[in-house]
Write a structure and sequence with these properties.
The chain has 443 residues and is α/β, with parallel strands linked by helices. The protein contains 13 helices and 18 strands. The protein starts with a strand and ends in a 35-residue tail after the last strand. The structure holds zinc ion.
């Protein structure tokens, strides 16, 4: 296949040839003679597929909310080519048996994937850490969906065990002892944000980073929602991710969203959101990850203290960021780094994250000139709602995983019958030498 005349994230126009699973050549002009298909990408951006380090595809245990089939289709339609599933399923992924069980469900995925292992009082590190895990995490320092909050002693065991096996650790950092109990007297939707106060996140991040630094181990902070938390992680030399909902939504939106804007950690005040946005545009935030956490409308449509926490996001993350690039300071290069290059580097995924010769042909083609309103009813996740209803998005025209087009927006059958692979079980190809000074490749 030849993708002709595409504009890469850094603005250069290039032809990109794909052969088999790999990007074979990136050059100003390439011969199309033996290409089985030529895609005219004039005026379009060709980006590396998004690596979403934080999704909840709900299987096993909660198939009514999402499945690997519907979740991975939603990912593909959103330009996401690799997803990482969290352990708070039923049963949770806490030993070899439950890991193997989840691997069977993940076989339904049309995008590549990673499976995280969880830590609870019942986890079996002796068997779990022998499995091809993506990472250990998210390790819950406070209860969230699935009540997997753990004691500090167990957290220390977890990072020691992970370090001994060379497995990354990701952390859901909230300190429940700092939750604002007086908020429980309220019944308005904003009470959730008042209850899970910002200081509970900041203190938990500082504590987790101190423990990790003390043991000379790096950790990754999941869904950081405060500028203070982002700065604390960066100052400690740790990495962090931010979700699209914490970049684009704040407590000012809760009046309209109600419990459909409820997640953990919760939305923050508008001022804090703006400072998070600044840190995403050109600050210490390492990556965007969605924390795609679907629940049905029926489950969400209840009072603030009964509603489950979590919002869908895997299909709308890249479209929202690309729409932001049209109107504001967010650049295509920064989007490439936040959604692909940095997750690949930080989580040790060779041959991914940039449009470079020798890399996996995980690619997404978008037309930055066209936006469409986001409609929950048109998304492919099982829960047909979104907290971004009506906002503009730049939706992918085409998504490719390891050289196969798995999604084509304007095709009669948009989805291909493709099978994703566990990225921790894929063979590693020799890295290509970069010719233009970017980390390990071109656009
Ligand atoms: Zn979490």
């Amino acid at each position: 296949m030849l993708i002709r005349n595409a504009t890469l994230a850094d603005g250069r126009t290039r032809d990109v040839r794909v052969s088999g699973e790999t990007i074979d050549a990136v050059a100003p002009e390439l011969d199309a003679t033996d290409a089985d298909r030529v895609v005219d990408a004039t005026g379009k951006r060709l980006l590396p597929g998004m690596i979403d380090a934080h999704v909840h595809f709900r299987q096993p245990g909660f198939n009514h909310k999402e499945t690997w089939e519907t979740g991975s289709r939603s990912a593909a339609a959103g330009g996401v080519t690799t997803v990482v599933d969290q352990p708070n399923t039923d049963p949770p992924t806490i030993d070899s048996a439950t890991f193997r069980q989840k691997l069977e469900y993940a076989a339904q995925s049309i995008v590549d994937f990673g499976i995280n292992g969880g830590v609870t009082a019942d986890w079996r590190p002796d068997t779990l850490l022998e499995e091809p895990l993506f990472a250990l995490g998210e390790v819950f320092l406070a209860d969230s969906t699935g009540e997997m909050g753990i004691e500090e002693r167990l957290f220390v065991d977890a990072i020691d065990g992970a370090a001994a096996h060379g497995v990354p650790v990701t952390v859901h950092a909230e300190d429940a002892s700092l939750f604002n109990l007086s908020a429980k007297e309220r019944d308005d939707s904003d009470a959730w944000s008042a209850y899970r106060a910002a200081r509970a996140e900041v203190a938990a991040i500082e504590r987790a980073c101190a423990i990790a630094a003390d043991r000379n181990v790096g950790i990754h902070i999941a869904h950081t929602s405060t500028p203070e938390g982002i700065d604390a992680a960066a100052e400690a030399g740790m990495t962090c991710e931010v979700t699209p909902h914490h970049v684009l939504l704040s407590r000012s939106d809760i009046t309209e969203l109600g419990t459909f804007g409820q997640m953990n950690p919760p939305l923050r005040r508008e001022k804090r959101r703006q400072r998070v946005y600044e840190r995403v545009v050109d600050g210490p935030v390492d990556m965007i990850a969605t924390d795609h956490a679907p629940h049905t409308r029926e489950e969400k449509d209840t009072d603030v203290w009964s509603a489950p926490s979590g919002v869908p996001g895997v299909e709308t993350a890249l479209p929202l960021l690309l729409a932001e690039a049209r109107r504001g300071p967010l650049t295509f290069e920064r989007i490439r780094d936040l959604t692909a290059a940095n997750p690949a580097e930080i989580f040790g995924l060779p041959n991914r994250g940039t449009v470079a010769e020798g890399n996996h042909a995980d690619l997404v083609l978008v037309d930055p000139g066209t936006t469409e309103p986001i409609r929950g009813s048109e998304l492919h996740t099982k829960c047909d709602w979104t907290p971004f209803e009506g906002r503009p998005g730049v939706f992918p025209k085409l998504t490719m995983v390891r050289g196969e087009i798995i999604y084509e927006r304007d095709a009669d059958e948009p989805f291909a019958d493709h099978r994703g692979e566990n990225v921790r079980e894929q063979s590693v190809k020799p890295a290509e030498q970069a010719d233009d000074g970017t980390r390990n490749g071109n656009g």
